[in-house]
Structures are given as C-alpha cells and as structure tokens.
Write a structure and sequence with these properties.
About 55% of the residues lie in helices and about 20% in strands. It has helices at about 35-45, 75-85, 120-130, 140, 145-155, 160-205, 210-225, 225-240, 245-265, 270-295, 300-320, 325-340, 345-390, 445-450, 450-475, 490-505, 520, 550-565, and strands spanning about 1-10, 15-20, 25-30, 60-70, 95-105, 110-115, 115-120, 130-135, 395-400, 405-415, 415-420, 430-435, 445, 480-485, 510-515, 525-535, 540-545.
Length: about 575
C-alpha cells in the first residue's frame, strides 16, 4: 500500500499544497519552525485525529485534506474493511482509496471515503489499517510498561486476541460486581419480598369488591332501624286493613262516583280517577305488606356487617384511603413481585454465569500467556540484531515478565508447579523491556537506563521487527509507517545507521520520515522540502512544499551540513 498524494488546503499556515510521495523512503526536511510537522498533522487529521482551533487557516472558509492511497490488489485489509463499512462486495476502484476531510470554521467535520460519506467511528476502524504515525512523543511512550507489553503483543500478532480478552474480562467483572451487589442487597430484597407476599395475601384474602362497602352500609342502616321500620309499616298495613279503612272509604266513594257518572257523563272522569286511585292504594297496601315481610331482627348478621366494615376500614387506611386505592395497591404489589428477583435463584444464575465467563477469560489468557512467552525470545533476538545495525554493539535487550500471585486468581503451571495469578484486563502477566548498551553490564529497565538516542533506536528496532513479522505472516502490504523526527538525540555514524535501517524498512512498507539530519535524508527515494514563505499576502507567512530533484536534493543536503554540523 502506498500514500500517493496528500492535498492540503487552508491548514494553519498552509494555503494549498499537493505533496506527492513514492512507495519507498520519503524524507521531509526543512528549517526548524518551517512547518514540517504540519504535513504529518494533516495526515493525522485526514485519518480522524481531533481538530484544534489552531489547525484552521485564514485563507478560506473551510479546511480540506485529501489522502490518496494506492493498493497492489483488492485483498488489502483496508479495502476489505471499507467494503464491509459501506456494505458492498467491492468498491468501484479496488486499487485506490481517497480519504477526504472537510473542517468548517465552526470546527465541524465531514469525512468521505471515495466520495462516500463516512462516520468518524468507521474511519477510526479504517485508519490503523492505512497508516501508523510515530510522533515525537513515541519514544516517551516507549517508557510506559503498558506500551511495552502492547509492543510485544503486536509483534506476536496478538492484538485482536488481547482486545477480545479485555472484553471477556470486563464482562466477567461486570457479572462479578452484580453478584457482590446482590449478596449485599440480599437481606433487604428478601425482607421486601416477605413483606410484599404478606400484603398480597392480606389483600387477596379480604376479597374486596369496589361497591361492597356501600351495600353493607345500606344493609346495616336497615338492620339498625329494624324495630322502628317494622312498627311503622305494621301501622300502615293495620290502618289500610282496619274497619272503615281508607280502602273501604275510597271504595264507597268510588261507588257513589260511578252512580253519578251513570246519570251524568260529565262526571265520568272523576269516577275513573276514584277507580284508579283505589287500584293504586291496593297496590300500595300489598307493597307495604311485602316490605314488612322482608324486615327482621338479625343481631348475628349485624355483627357480621360491622366486622366486615371494620376490616374494610382497616385495609382502606393501610392501603391508600379507599377500596379502589387498596385494589390498585394489590395490582402494584403483584407486579413488583414479578420483577423483584428471587435472590436464591438469581444468585445461582449469576454464580453459574461468573464461572462460565471466568473460564472463557482463563482459556484465552492462558493461550496469550503461552504465545507471549514464546514471542519474547524471538522479539529480543530480532531487536538485538537491528540494534547492532544501528551502532549499538552487542546490546542486551529482552522482555522480563512479572505477575501478582492471587489465591483467587487463575491457576497456571510454572516450572512444574502450580501457582494462581491475578487476572487483569491485559492478561495474567505484565512486563517491561530490559536493556544494556554496554557488554558485560547487567541489563536494567529500558525506561530508566536508555538515553534519548537509544530510545529512538530501540523504537525503530521494535518497529522493524514488528513490520517484518507482519509482512512475513500476512503476505499483503500493511499500514504505511510515518516517523516524525525518530532520529532525535543521535548524529554522526549512528544517524547513518538509522538512515540505512529506514531505507531497509522501506523495502517492505512505505516509510515517511520527518528529519533534521543529512545522514538520514540522504537515503530518501524522494526528498520533500518544507519552506516558510513570507512573500505572499502582503508579507504574511505561509508554508510551501517542494519535491526536490536529485540536484536540488544534493544542494539541500549540503546546506543541512552547514546549518547543522555533524557532531
């Protein structure tokens, strides 16, 4: 894979430049402060790096960066990943990819891949397959234990497995935390369940009905007044049934009215009214008599009603103040019991899941441990060989593992005995590189004993080892390697050795390096010069980039000697 061109518009002091690259070693030089690192910054922005306000120029209303990549074939991992992101079987041009980023003055960005709008999250998946940028802080990162372990994992091609192990560890720990939380809450949850079951049983046994209370109150009122009701109704019945009762009087009056109507038809309406009233009064007598028959004294029933009303009143006061509120509470309790975990059952479920996830993590962690142990010796040999080429004669360079014993950890075999190691996201072991540049001197942690120049060369040696390993195993061009002043802290013959090694590395993958050393720049297949130009825009500074011819490159290399004498 090759980065063929980088188009930059309106980035900081760059108005517009087109930078062309070749497939081998590309060197970028220029005076201090000329803007060399802006080229690397532009590439990192194209690949999704966060933009800062200082990145935006004043030459136009937006910043545009385009990175043009070329592939030898369509089976490159970057193209396959892009096809998957775009949900296509293959792109229109499977041998080329143009990544474009547009940044507005407000700071908002849009990303495109071959003119297809691309989400930042998708670009983040794609970027590591395209380019690996080692900035000026890379040597500082090499002092970190985590970075050193990650470097070993990269060499052993374990990055995907380590990411999967970290995910399994997180899942395992999440279930473990849930289990601990459930245990701590178990007493409270059990008490809540017990109370809810009691309340549910109390309400269900009461068998409350929405209108039951009103009916009971009405019945109680009748029973409480039974004697008076009986006495009054009996008096009505007796009056209606007595000699010369209203019925007999009304019947006699009706007969008289009928005689009058027979003589004078004008009185027929009054006669009929007497007849109707007589019928109604008879119906009333029968109704009162029937009502009287339904009245009775029942002290036992009255006691039952009073007891039931007392029970209803108690439940009303306890569960919301009304029968409807109590019934609603019953529904809520029933629902809560369905969602409230049965701690015994849930605890058993979490325990089983924790064991399963622990086993999944353990299996992968032990596999990674074995491969790390195996890869460490090979990596040390490769790095020592490269350091010899980089003017560090007969160094000692190895990776020493360490771990923490934990009785609740993962069991491993070590020298025919079993030990239990603490489980971590990164695995069962940690470690760091040990280094000695002087024969006969005991190696010590690289982060403590290596100088700046030694760290730069160690970083390059590790990159060379990892890159060769990737190409040997994959058989397909991998990510482009970019160095921003990897040669800091060195000079003289050492700088020449670094240049040779960069040239060697560029036979396997495209290399772009920002350098201030003539020795390194002299190995470039393309020499790119960055200059600050004060002549445009009324004296305002801007950055220009030129690809030098062989003659111009020789002249520039000569000037670099004058400006920066070799130590």
């Amino acid at each position: 894979m090759t980065l063929r061109k980088l188009l930059i518009q309106n980035l900081a002091l760059i108005e517009r430049i087109d930078v062309a690259f070749c497939s081998g070693l590309n060197v970028i030089t220029g005076e201090s402060g000329a803007g060399k690192s802006l080229i690397i910054r532009a590439l990192s922005l194209a690949l999704g790096e966060r933009a800062d306000p200082d990145d935006l120029g004043d030459f136009a209303d937006k910043t545009i960066i385009e990175a043009h990549f070329e592939f030898k074939n369509g089976n490159n991992p970057a193209i396959l990943t892009l096809n998957k992101i775009l949900e296509r079987r293959e792109t229109e041009n499977k041998n080329a990819l143009i990544i474009r980023r547009e940044i507005s003055q407000s700071g908002r960005s849009r990303f495109f891949a071959n003119d297809n709008l691309l989400a930042l999250a998708d670009l983040k998946k794609l970027a590591p397959l395209l380019c690996r940028i080692q900035g000026q802080a890379a040597s500082v990162n090499l002092r970190s234990d985590e970075y050193q372990l990650a470097t070993l994992d990269k060499y052993a091609m374990l990055e995907e497995k380590v990411a999967l192990m970290a995910k399994r560890f997180d899942n395992w720990q999440a279930v473990k935390r849930d289990k601990i939380s459930l245990i701590s809450q178990r007493e409270n949850l059990d008490n809540e369940r017990e109370l809810l079951l009691f309340q549910k049983d109390e309400l269900e046994r009461a068998s409350l009905e929405p209108d039951e209370e009103e009916k009971l109150i009405a019945e109680k009122k009748r029973l409480d007044s039974a004697e008076k009701l009986i006495r009054d109704t009996e008096q009505i019945v007796q009056t209606l049934d007595a000699d010369q009762s209203p019925l007999e009087t009304l019947a006699e009056l009706g007969r008289l009215a009928k005689d009058i109507a027979e003589t004078d038809e004008q009185f027929s309406a009054q006669s009929k009214q007497f007849e109707s009233n007589l019928i109604q009064l008879e119906d009333l007598r029968q109704s009162v008599s029937s009502y009287r028959s339904s009245l009775y004294h029942d002290d036992q029933r009255l006691e039952e009603i009073n007891s039931r009303l007392a029970e209803i009143y108690k439940l009303k006061m306890k569960y919301g103040g009304s029968v409807s509120a109590a019934l609603k509470t019953l529904d809520e309790i029933t629902h809560r019991l369905t969602v409230l975990p049965d701690t015994g059952e849930k605890l058993a479920e979490l325990t089983a899941l924790e064991c399963e996830l622990r086993e999944q993590y353990s299996k992968l962690a032990l596999e990674i441990r074995k491969k790390r142990m195996s890869a460490e010796k090979r990596l040390s040999g490769d790095v020592v060989s490269t350091l010899n080429d980089l003017a560090i004669s007969n160094p000692i360079f190895d990776f020493k593992f360490n771990w923490t014993v934990d009785e609740d950890g993962i069991t491993v075999k070590d020298k025919n005995k079993e030990i239990t190691l603490k489980a971590e996201r990164y695995g069962l072991e940690k470690g760091e590189f040990y280094f000695s540049a002087n024969p006969g001197e005991e190696s010590r942690p690289l982060a403590r004993v290596a100088s700046g120049g030694e760290l730069s060369r160690a970083l390059l040696a590790l990159d060379v080892a990892a890159t060769h390993k990737t190409f040997t195993n994959a058989g397909i061009g991998g990510a482009i390697t970019v160095y921003d002043e990897v040669d800091s802290g060195i000079g003289g013959k050492t700088a020449t050795a670094v240049g040779k090694k960069l040239k060697e590395l560029s036979t396997s993958t495209q290399v772009i390096v920002v350098t201030h050393l003539r020795q390194v720049a002299s190995f470039g297949d393309i020499h790119i010069l960055v200059e600050k130009n004060p002549d445009r825009m009324g004296g305002r500074n801007s950055v220009d980039v030129r690809c030098l011819s062989k003659r111009e490159s020789r002249e520039q290399l000569a000037r670099m000697v004058d400006m920066e004498p070799v130590s």
